[in-house]
């Protein structure tokens, strides 16, 4: 039987078997060569290649691997088949061996129930765990600071530093045979003799549990980018989505599949089979949809484009195999193993082609004017003409773990959530690749899990929405102008979110409701108005933990937990209103709202009008939703004599007291600045201003005295007592 397999490059695989041979396969040229014959008493059990990217130096291929065997040793073997070192590790067989992501440590697990950590050269560093039952499988955490291992029916996560909290839970009703922990999505897979496979988060909560199969699940493995995983059993190979549902089921005649290894680019996998065969499988038939186009990868190097409006079909042929693709904003971007192709949806015949430096692209993100390629070496922003615009960098950058939830791109801004400090979002200017503003990243008080930039509007008003670990949704402005940024919470228990591609409308799934924030900017204008600008709909039809796939035009696409897609349509009017307001057509906006007669739309218009300082429209809109106090205040503002005081009171209306005061002081309207502080009962500040400008001290004291008399209180504030003696009121 073949016990273990592992890829060195995207086109070269090594396999080890109970016939003591180590073989090398090239699936492209179908060549097979013997690399090495092991001694007769050595039966191989697990193989893992040394990681490729070490200390910033990217090797194009792995140079050596660790092989664990039944005689209690592990062997470090070079690519050419020379055994560099054999180390006595366990009593009984060494069942698993895994390098950490940096290649600085190796973990082995044995039949003797021990889990040991070794240095790169094979010196014992520590014994992490000892138990009475054999440890069948072991995996590193994404940061290489914890180890996951099996203990009978239990899964255990143990941090490397001593005295840290150990997490342990019962995961299966039978022996657990295999585990895998992905570094991109931080999810854990487990497979057991109870014939089930399960998906867990890193806190040990179950996210998916399969139906029982006919036979024990003997192999399970994540693709590198964390979007797919493969499951192997007796005569069974299954391809699944990261949320657990199944894309494809094959029944090859292989016996049990004992190990699965994905190639580096995630396009193919190999399995070690019980009947002495090595099985190769390629992922095909991925779909991309946008507006009226549906694109399918039908072969490894061929795509089929289907235009559903006129049933036209185009075939796109590529020189090398397709690794990643993205379709949006009228462009299809495809990366192959060596090149990147950019097709316009208006013309499929003449793509723009340019060469790639690194090769394996792990993520493509599109905005209207440009797109981002992420590979092992960095972030690269290209225009649709194929010109490299910029390549942003930040300290401690690890691009291999970025995914669509942790990177967001708009026409002028790029945001990246870092792994080293999960509370930080780095924000870059897209065109220069330099950090935005004062160069300080955006910092939140808890860890952030998902980020998204809005796509439209002015650069100075760019907003970023993000979900933190408690599933609260926040919004903040990307540009800070040196003042403390206001991060405002606009939702709770948010599972998934997406901005619209053509106007700044945000949608999300909150707890059991599907919510659309028609004008999220409302929180900066008039916070109390936000609930009136929402659209909510019961989301129970989407079953548990649905994900928003896209939000294009007025159609939202949601993927349910079972893999089926649901399409939702939202009202087209808010988008039309956004369009009117962005080109300052206030009359048309009013006409639209009067025609639709919808409170939500009026509330959006009120907020938009205040944001754009158009007070007459705001007055009509507030009147339509019955906010009479605000109508009166707006009327009062309109009657103010000077432009500065009108602006200041509009800032006050939006709750920006500090800015209003600064504006009045700059305009020399000291008395008004003092008066607004008195009205807000900011007594200290009012007195401070009066003393500083040597004017109206008596007025402040008089107001203060009247205020205290009304409430029957005595003056206790030292500063007021001190000035009251010297000034007669």
Automatic annotation (TrEMBL):
Primary location recorded for the protein, binned into one broad class: other
Q: Where in the cell is it found?
A: Cell projection, Cilium
Q: Where are the WD repeats?
A: 87-119, 169-201
* Gene3D superfamilies, sorted: 1.25.40.470, YVTN repeat-like/Quinoprotein amine dehydrogenase (2.130.10.10)
Q: Which GO terms describe its cellular component?
A: centrosome; cilium; intraciliary transport particle B
The IFT80/172/WDR35 TPR domain covers 601-729
Against SMART domains, the record matches this protein to: WD40
Keyword annotations from UniProtKB, A to Z: Cell projection, Cilium, WD repeat
One BP annotation, GO: cilium assembly
Give all residue intervals belonging to the IFT80 second beta-propeller domain.
285-573
InterPro entries per UniProt: Beta-prop_IFT80_2nd, TPR_IFT80_172_dom, WD40/YVTN_repeat-like_dom_sf, WD40_repeat_dom_sf, WD40_rpt
Please give the name of this protein.
IFT80 protein
Q: Which organism is it from?
A: Melospiza melodia
């Amino acid at each position: 039987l073949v016990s273990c397999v592992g890829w060195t490059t995207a086109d070269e695989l090594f396999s080890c078997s109970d016939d003591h041979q180590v073989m090398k396969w090239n699936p492209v040229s179908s060549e097979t060569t013997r690399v090495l014959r092991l001694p007769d008493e050595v039966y191989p059990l697990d193989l893992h290649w040394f990681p490729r990217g070490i200390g910033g130096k990217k090797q194009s291929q792995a140079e050596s691997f660790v092989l664990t065997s039944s005689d209690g040793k592990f062997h470090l073997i070079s690519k050419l088949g020379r055994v560099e070192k054999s180390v006595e590790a366990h009593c009984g067989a060494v069942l698993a061996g895994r390098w950490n992501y940096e290649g600085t440590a190796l973990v082995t697990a044995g039949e003797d129930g021990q889990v040991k950590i070794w240095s790169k050269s094979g010196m014992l560093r520590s014994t992490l765990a000892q138990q009475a039952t054999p440890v069948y499988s072991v995996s590193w955490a994404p940061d290489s600071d914890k180890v996951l291992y099996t203990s009978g029916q239990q899964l255990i996560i143990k941090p490397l530093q001593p005295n840290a909290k150990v997490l342990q839970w019962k995961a299966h009703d039978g022996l657990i045979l295999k585990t895998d922990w992905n570094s991109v999505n931080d999810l854990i897979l487990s497979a057991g003799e109870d014939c089930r496979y399960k998906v867990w988060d890193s806190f040990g909560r179950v996210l998916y549990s399969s139906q029982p199969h006919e036979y024990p699940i003997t192999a399970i493995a994540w693709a590198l980018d964390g979007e797919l995983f493969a499951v192997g059993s007796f005569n069974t190979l299954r391809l699944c989505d990261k949320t657990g549902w199944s894309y494809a089921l094959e029944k090859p005649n292989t016996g049990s599949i004992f190990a699965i290894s994905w190639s580096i680019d995630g396009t193919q996998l190999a399995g070690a089979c019980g009947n002495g065969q090595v099985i190769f499988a390629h992922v095909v038939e991925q779909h991309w949809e946008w507006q009226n186009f549906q694109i399918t990868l039908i072969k490894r190097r061929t795509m089929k484009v289907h235009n559903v409006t006129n049933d036209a079909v185009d075939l796109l042929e590529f020189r090398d195999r397709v690794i990643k693709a993205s379709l949006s904003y009228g462009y299809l971007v495809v990366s192959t193993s060596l090149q990147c192709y950019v097709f316009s949806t208006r013309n499929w015949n003449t793509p723009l082609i340019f060469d790639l430096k690194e090769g394996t692209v792990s993520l493509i993100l599109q905005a209207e004017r440009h797109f981002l390629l992420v590979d092992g070496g960095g972030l690269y922003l290209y225009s649709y003409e194929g010109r490299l615009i910029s390549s942003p960098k930040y300290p401690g950058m690890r691009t291999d773990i970025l995914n669509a939830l942790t990177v967001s791109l708009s026409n002028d801004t790029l945001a990246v959530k870092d792994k080293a400090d999960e509370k930080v979002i780095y924000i870059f200017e897209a065109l220069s690749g330099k950090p935005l503003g004062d160069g300080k990243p955006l910092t939140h008080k808890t860890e952030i899990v998902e980020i998204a930039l809005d796509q439209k509007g002015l650069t100075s008003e760019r907003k970023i929405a993000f979900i933190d670990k408690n599933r609260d949704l926040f919004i903040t402005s990307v540009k800070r102008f040196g003042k403390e940024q206001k991060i405002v919470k606009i939702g709770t228990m948010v599972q998934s979110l997406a901005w619209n591609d053509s106007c700044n409308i945000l949608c999300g799934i909150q707890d059991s409701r599907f919510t659309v924030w028609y004008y999220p900017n409302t929180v900066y204008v008039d916070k109390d108005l936000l609930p009136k600008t929402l659209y909510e709909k019961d989301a129970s039809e989407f079953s548990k933990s649905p994900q928003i796939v896209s939000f294009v035009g007025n159609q939202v696409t949601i993927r349910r937990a079972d893999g089926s897609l649901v399409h939702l349509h939202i009202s087209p009017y808010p988008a039309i209103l956004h369009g009117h307001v962005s080109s300052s057509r206030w009359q048309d906006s009013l006409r639209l709202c009067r025609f639709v007669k919808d409170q939500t739309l009026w509330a959006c218009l009120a907020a938009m009008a205040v944001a754009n300082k158009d007070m007459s429209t705001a007055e009509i809109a507030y009147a339509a939703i019955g906010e009479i106090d605000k109508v009166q205040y707006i009327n009062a503002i309109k009657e103010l004599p000077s432009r500065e005081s009108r602006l200041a009171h509009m800032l006050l209306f939006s709750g920006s007291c500090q800015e209003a005061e600064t504006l009045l002081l700059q305009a020399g309207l000291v008395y008004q600045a003092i008066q607004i502080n008195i009205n807000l009962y900011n007594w200290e500040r009012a007195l401070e201003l009066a003393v500083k400008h040597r004017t109206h001290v008596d007025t402040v004291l008089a107001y203060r005295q009247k205020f205290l008399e009304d409430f029957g209180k005595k003056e206790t504030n030292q500063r007021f007592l001190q000035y009251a003696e010297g000034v007669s009121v």
